[in-house]
Each structure stands twice: as structure tokens, then as C-alpha cells.
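How a chain folds remains the central question behind the approach discussed here. For one protein, we set the task of working out the C-alpha cells from the amino acid sequence alone. The sequence in question and its C-alpha cells are set out directly beneath this paragraph.

_____
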Amino acid sequence: MRKEIMNRLSRTEQMLNDLIRADNDSIELNVRYGLIGSKRFTLHLTKQMTLDAYVDNPEQDAIMSFPVLDVTVHKSVFKAKNEWETAMTPEGLAVEIHKSARKLPNYEIR
């Protein structure tokens, strides 16, 4: 069961990475699964400082930080809860997460 979830999560991450990179190639993506309440997934977009930001760097053009999108997917998102519901596919989940990420206030499309 865990292997199947990890396989589907990996497929979701691959497709989501392609979608995100098409918008902004500097965004790093972290995808994991867990129990997060009644939501299918949660999103957090933060900035990660680079090592150049910690060290005195004489270059003014050096990149000091980059965006990181942290995604936590609910453990049972790929299961149908009721017989009238259909199970979420990895591709469908990736598209849904991408649409939600684009609505975040500090998400930049380049």
C-alpha cells in the first residue's frame, strides 16, 4: 500500500514539477504526504536563502534567495471515500495543485 502511494506521489511530483518549471524555473518543489485534516493538500510558498546570502559576497548580482513550494498531500487522496466518488489520479492532483499555487499571492510567473 505504501509503495503504491509513493509511486502515485512520485508521478504527481514529476508532473507538478513540469507545470511549475514552465511558470518559473527557479522554484524548488518539495512534495510529501501525511494526515492534514479534511483538505486534499496544503501549499506553502516560502523563500530559501542561498549560501551567498550568509557569506559576505562582493557580487551585487548574486541571487540571495529562491522560492520554495512545499506541498503536503493527504495520505488518502488517491482513494475513493464513497462508492459514488472517483479516485483522484496523480495527473489530476498535479493540475489541481498547480492551479491553487498560481493563486498564491507571492507566486511569480516569469
Q: What stands out?
A: The radius of gyration is 17 Å. The beta strands are 28-34, 41-49, 65-74. The first helix runs from residue 2 to 23.
